[in-house]
Amino acid sequence: MFNVVIVRYGEIGTKSRQTRRWFESILMNNIREALVSEGIEFKKVEAKHGRILVKTNKAREAVDVLGRVFGIVSLSPAMEIDAELDKINRTALKLFRRKKRELGLERPRFRVTARRITKEFPLKSPEVQAKVGEYILEKEESEVDLHNYDIEVGVELMEGKAYVFVDKIYSWGGLPIGTQGKVVALLSGGIDSPVAAFLMMKRGVEVIPVHIYMGEKTLEKVRRIWNQLRRYGYGGKGELIVVKPKERERILEKLREMKKEKYTCVFCKYMMVRHADRIAREFGAKGIVMGDSLGQVASQTLENMYIVSQATDLPIYRPLVGLDKEEIVRIAKEIGTFELSTLPEDEIPFIPKHPVIRGSWEEFRKLYRAVFGEEPRKRQC
Amino acid sequence: MFNVVIVRYGEIGTKSRQTRRWFESILMNNIREALVSEGIEFKKVEAKHGRILVKTNKAREAVDVLGRVFGIVSLSPAMEIDAELDKINRTALKLFRRKKRELGLERPRFRVTARRITKEFPLKSPEVQAKVGEYILEKEESEVDLHNYDIEVGVELMEGKAYVFVDKIYSWGGLPIGTQGKVVALLSGGIDSPVAAFLMMKRGVEVIPVHIYMGEKTLEKVRRIWNQLRRYGYGGKGELIVVKPKERERILEKLREMKKEKYTCVFCKYMMVRHADRIAREFGAKGIVMGDSLGQVASQTLENMYIVSQATDLPIYRPLVGLDKEEIVRIAKEIGTFELSTLPEDEIPFIPKHPVIRGSWEEFRKLYRAVFGEEPRKRQC
């Protein structure tokens, strides 16, 4: 029935024509990648007057997949027909009836919204709306209500064609992946880090997922989380990089010896960022994403984040820093990582009973020197 | 009518009793500060069984003000009475009637939700619900509907008192300001930076607002923005710090001379962070907040943010980095800064026509040396 998907990507704040072109072409590539990798046949993907048209007879399936491509604001499975009033009327009626059945309404309220994107069609938009509305009213039990409608029939007219649709599915927005370079995302297996990575991906960043090994159970969990996340990664999806840290025993032993176990977590995070820093440089990534949210646990303090930030010259992006746990959980559920994040993981035997809450950089430096015999950051890991 | 406000602050993830106590005491202080500074009389603020009670005859007014205190999840203006079924019934009916009038409903659906916080009351919660529900049904045209209700009558029982209410106003959540230390917030006069500062405040951070002077019109605007933001700042509201940068002319001249005007914006932001860094150290602040959102304008790139981040050892917090403009605007409108941010400001005469999009750190260093004769960050500003 449908033969095209209308993809709308909004203004996205890139005003120059050149940037817009470039943006469009990346978005089109990501759309193609999404459809190809999900096995959805399509004839053509083309940019037209600020929207993208995906010609396909699998419009419904395509909409499902494209709902996970960033940079898209809304999607409509539509019928492309020649722009003749008669055809428009009949198509609109057909879609209207279908939607009416779907909603199970006896006398739906509706409105018609028409837009002439190019101006060759002889009737103006309000006239199209009136004509199509009258036609539907004649044929179907219904009433027009411009504000409280159950069904909105959309008609977009361009270049001699009409696009008729009754659904507009709102999507994630954001920017197409590949427009904003790369960052390394540290994935721990918890609820927060996948959400942080997701939000960066949403802003067009290609994410290089890195997991610092804790044990097989946690690794398996992180693999599943990344497999879920990469469903949003059309345009750039890397393989999970797993780092087995060699220095852990040495650090733990030394901290225990000095009775400074309370610094274990800060040390551990510092080393994670050191590894992320090294991988970022190898891959040409321009930053590191972390799932920190301020004050979520007692040890997520400005002081501890200061220490951890010293592990790299790269900016650390913390998109969750201003969010409450509730908001983070809501996103995690929406993107399908929440369930996975609550799967069992390896117990970490070395978490101290009372982790340091406001760690001191000076003290950390001293501990670092005691463990490694040199200044923090001098040492490669 | 109301004589108390029930303040709920949820679990907030601080599980140790000690942390909770400390958190409660800061929240109570912030509540007191809010009420005193808005001239709302109250008799007492006390913590009881995981909630805070504000005894006041100005409950409605208090709720308005407390809606801007972070750390609060929900608020109910309530009637505190002795915990006797008879009294509970009559109070519930009175509030029910009042709410019914307010909603203008003839036959409202309602439910009663009771909780025994302490257990001395002889009836269990479901019994209280049944009794109070029956009483209301007898006296008032209405029906019980546990799922689709127009009115919910709440009854909380503790220590021989009953708290009856019909409104539960959801609030910002977050953490009480003062629990998380201080950061410097750069306020430019645009839409984004106040939202970024707001989100950090919401997570319990005291914000030190800094504006780098551009002209009187912009300064006036930023003052108004900060006056709006500080309405959320009970618990720590600083005065706006205005920095008049002395080095601007020198930078502009030199960049022009070298035909590198395209670096003006990056240079300007770098210097802003240098100033923020100096002020942070003076005030003992542990980070800098900025309104950056990735890719919002062509020059908000990972590369340019990398350069700017080199201006400080402190972590730069960018709570908007994962948000779309639309989401930022929505928050700005909600907190009342949007209108102010769109007021006219001083034109900036030195914005280059084509700002650098992917700035290079090496090139920036060279330019910096050419302007100041030394390495970036060596120089104090």
From TrEMBL, chains A, B:
Catalysed reaction, written as an equation: [ThiS sulfur-carrier protein]-C-terminal Gly-Gly-AMP + S-sulfanyl-L-cysteinyl-[cysteine desulfurase] + AH2 = [ThiS sulfur-carrier protein]-C-terminal-Gly-aminoethanethioate + L-cysteinyl-[cysteine desulfurase] + A + AMP + 2 H(+); [ThiI sulfur-carrier protein]-S-sulfanyl-L-cysteine + a uridine in tRNA + 2 reduced [2Fe-2S]-[ferredoxin] + ATP + H(+) = [ThiI sulfur-carrier protein]-L-cysteine + a 4-thiouridine in tRNA + 2 oxidized [2Fe-2S]-[ferredoxin] + AMP + diphosphate
Cellular compartments annotated: Cytoplasm
Pfam families membership: ThiI, ThiI_fer, THUMP
Record bears the keyword Glycoprotein: no
Pathway(s) annotated for this protein in UniProt: Cofactor biosynthesis; thiamine diphosphate biosynthesis
GO CC terms in record: cytosol
PANTHER family tied to this protein: TRNA SULFURTRANSFERASE
Its biological purpose: Catalyzes the ATP-dependent transfer of a sulfur to tRNA to produce 4-thiouridine in position 8 of tRNAs, which functions as a near-UV photosensor. Also catalyzes the transfer of sulfur to the sulfur carrier protein ThiS, forming ThiS-thiocarboxylate. This is a step in the synthesis of thiazole, in the thiamine biosynthesis pathway. The sulfur is donated as persulfide by IscS.
Annotated protein name in UniProt: Probable tRNA sulfurtransferase
Gene this chain is encoded by: thiI
